[in-house]
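QA checklist item 7 of 12: single-chain prediction sanity check.
[x] sequence parsed
[x] length recorded as 130
[x] structure emitted
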Amino acid sequence: MTNLQVIQKMYKDFGSGDIPAVMAAFDSDVVFIRPGEPVIPFSGEFRGFDGLKKMFTIVAQTVKINAFLPKHFLTNEDTVAVIGEDHADVLATGKSYNSQWVYVYTLKENKVIHVQVYLDTLELAEAFRS
């Protein structure tokens, strides 16, 4: 399987709600970095499987994802960048956000070892503020 196929499968699994299959795409020592103010509960640096589980749990407990749409996949050797958008409702505030994003994945031996997310954090922060 190519790195691109690993990432495409991961997005398909996420879309179907198969979190164990999503987790299988990651290396046990993965570093996942999501920018944002502390008001965004799933911003920060998450390390390893425990960190990923924590991040996915926080996301599930704080937002209702209405759409998560990867649009373009770009690849170069050990890196896959995905450009997309998502639409979600913040459960605590009832506010919504629409976010354009880029996820940059670094892979080694067909496992994701590093993720850096780029997005408009102000849009999310405003939705989380009461």
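[x] summary fact logged: Residues 3-128 form a domain with the Nuclear Transport Factor 2; Chain: A, fold (CATH 3.10.450.50).
[ ] second reviewer sign-off
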